[in-house]
């Protein structure tokens, strides 16, 4: 069965292509390369032994997207393509709404036209806004605190409305907590351009000598050691969660949201400690003021995915830091 993977050259999409291939599906990648390297395709081939079809294209280009669906006999779409930098989204909100929201509407129009009615969407725990209780389950109220987050809220609503209007349509929204790690081969991982916003790539770049120290944003939160707590999930677990969700609901319809997390939180200091152990480098850090907009703790209630999809995260914090280090030390500058 052929699945079009928008954004399939990116961090999460590329790892999900490996999981799709392993499960017997055939991924066809559709990506405009705005935030990815063409070399990902070669790495995927070394890892899987298969050369995946790649179409360079933009989700906003309806004619091109339509041709990709029709010419490849696509039966479902895994939709990762999006802009994802929270800070940038507050500076360029229209660009984010255009790419993430208008882009998805354009895709859904084409999918309806050609009769492809299954979509798996990359959502985020950001749709829960400021947590009102922990752990966060799927019934938690939906909100957002920045334009990027609103694009996820809006697309979820659009998907739900579209499903409500079409008895045969299926949309699964996977709300990721904090994806980290890399493929265990060390051949594929995350390589953010510029200064990393996220904790794990910042620690990795510090360990490899590209940054002097990690700034720990706040040590006076109401958490066991005062630093922020998050639910980090290994990228390979996350990738397999997509396959589990699709396989479980292939014959179903409706709008189905699921958390993908481990249910377990780790503090900033715990992650630095784990990374130091994996890398053998004593990762330097300094306490710094809180980052505006950050919350103290965030972690998932992960039982719905376990019950309905038969999926749980298997890989622990050590696997996350080991595999990140393997990739970072092998490719300190990413694939470029
Ligand atoms: P990424 O930037 O590595 O991958 C996104 C890919 O989409 C890139 O390869 C980019 O070139 C492509 N793309 C962007 N706009 C496009 C367009 N208009 N047409 C075609 N291709 C386009 O990001 P990622 O971390 O792999 O994230 C994948 C998805 O998961 C995104 O939707 C993101 O919002 C979501 N998400 C990510 C995280 C995270 O921490 N990484 C957390 C929650 C949700
Ligand atoms: N942190 C530091 N130093 C850094 C970077 C981060 O101390 O250099 C801390 C943060 O304060 C936070 C924790 O590390 O306590 C994790 O921060 P990340 O930036 O890695 O992740 P966030 O939880 O802040 O953000 C992630 C995604 C967003 C998404 C959000 C909510 O990156 O896209 O989860 O789901 F919106």
Using only CA atoms, what is the Rg?
19 Å
CATH superfamily of the domain at 2-180 and 231-260: NAD(P)-binding Rossmann-like Domain
* Strand proportion: 15-25%
Q: What overall geometry do the principal axes of the alpha carbons give?
A: globular
Specify the biggest β-sheet.
Answer: 7 strands, parallel
CATH class division of the domain at 2-180 and 231-260 = Alpha Beta
Distance linking N and C termini: 32 Å
Neighbour order of strands in the largest sheet: 3-2-1-4-5-6-11
CATH architecture level-2 label of the domain at 2-180 and 231-260:
3-Layer(aba) Sandwich
- Number of E-state strands: 14
Fold-level CATH name of the domain at 2-180 and 231-260 = Rossmann fold
**How helix-rich are the residues, as a percent range?**
25-40%
The low-pLDDT segments are none
Global structural class: alpha/beta
Determine the number of helices (DSSP H or I, runs of at least 4 residues). 11
Query: Which cofactor or ligand species appear?
Result: nicotinamide-adenine-dinucleotide, uridine-5'-diphosphate-4-deoxy-4-fluoro-alpha-D-galactose
SSE topology string: EHEHEHEHHEHEEHEEEHEEHEEHH
* Overall average residue pLDDT: 97
């Amino acid at each position: 069965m052929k699945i079009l993977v928008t954004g399939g050259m990116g961090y999460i999409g590329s790892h999900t292509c490996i999981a799709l291939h392993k499960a017997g599906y055939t991924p066809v990648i559709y990506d405009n390369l705005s935030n990815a390297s063409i070399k990902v395709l070669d790495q995927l081939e070394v890892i899987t032994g298969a050369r995946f079809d790649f179409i360079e294209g933009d989700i906003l280009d309806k004619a091109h997207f339509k041709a990709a669906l029709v010419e490849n006999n696509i039966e479902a779409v895994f939709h990762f393509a999006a802009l994802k930098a929270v800070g940038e989204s507050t500076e360029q909100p229209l660009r984010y709404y255009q790419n993430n929201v208008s882009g998805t509407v354009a895709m859904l129009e084409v999918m309806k036209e050609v009769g492809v009615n299954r979509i798996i969407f990359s959502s985020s725990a950001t749709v829960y806004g400021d947590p009102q209780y922990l752990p966060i389950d799927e019934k938690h109220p939906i909100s957002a605190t920045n334009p990027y987050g609103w694009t996820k809220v809006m697309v979820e609503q659009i998907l739900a409305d579209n499903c409500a209007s079409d008895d045969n349509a299926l949309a699964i929204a996977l709300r990721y907590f904090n994806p980290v790690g890399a493929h265990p081969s060390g051949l594929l991982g995350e390589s953010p351009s510029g200064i990393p916003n996220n904790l794990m790539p910042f620690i990795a770049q510090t360990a490899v000598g590209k940054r002097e120290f990690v700034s720990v944003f706040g040590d006076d939160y109401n958490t066991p050691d005062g630093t922020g707590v998050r639910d980090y999930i290994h990228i390979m677990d996350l990738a397999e969660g997509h396959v589990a969700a699709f396989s479980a609901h292939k014959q179903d319809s409706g709008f189905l949201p699921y958390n993908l997390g481990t249910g377990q939180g780790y503090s900033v200091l715990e992650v630095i400690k784990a990374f130091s152990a994996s890398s053998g480098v004593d990762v330097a850090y300094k306490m710094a003021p809180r980052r505006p907009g950050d919350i103290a703790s965030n972690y998932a209630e992960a039982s719905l995915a376990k019950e309905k999809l038969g999926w749980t995260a298997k890989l622990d914090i050590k696997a996350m830091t080991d595999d990140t280090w393997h990739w970072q030390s092998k490719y300190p500058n990413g694939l470029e």
